[in-house]
Amino acid sequence: MKSYQLSYITSLENSEDKIKQIQDKIISFVQEAGGTLNKSGEMIRKNTGYLVSLYFYLSPEKIVNLEKNLKEENRVLRYLILTKRLVKKATSLPNLRRQKTPKIKTKVELEEIDKKLTEILDKS
User: Mean pLDDT of all residues in the chain?
Assistant: First the structure.
């Protein structure tokens, strides 16, 4: 199943009760197709009509039947179905800080150390 968002516009002439009936009918279309409702968005009044959004899960092959039912519903002026991507939570984020490169230590011979010590002590 994929995650979808359905947004549709109904006429301003419809009352809130009629819009609720339309929404219930569309939810039944989704459920009859074997989908599950994720969440129902709020109704927003626009200049052209009421905008309502629904979020649901449905098999991709069942979208054709849903669109057919939406086209037959004459109270729905326009609709748009979007595929929603599921965002996976990152288990761990990579360390983006610049890591210090470790200094490579070379072995120093004991004679070189003695030589450096005598140079330092002679200067004092």
Answer: 85
Q: Which domains does the chain have, with CATH numbers?
A: 2-84 (3.30.70.60)
CA–CA separation, 66 and 74 (whole Å): 14
CB 23 within 8 A of CB 54: yes
Handedness of CA 83, 54, 63, 74 (dihedral sign): negative
- Residues 26-68: tens digit of each pLDDT: 999 999 999 999 988 888 998 889 999 999 999 999 999 999 9
For the whole prediction, is pTM greater than 0.90?
no
Q: Where are the beta strands (DSSP E) in 1-124?
A: 2-10, 36-40, 44-45, 50-58, 76-84
Could you give the CA distance from residue 117 to residue 113 in angstroms, rounded to a whole number?
6
80 phi and psi angles, rounded to 5 deg: -145, 130
Tokens of 7: 């947004």
What whole-number distance in Å separates Cα of residue 20 and Cα of residue 24? 6
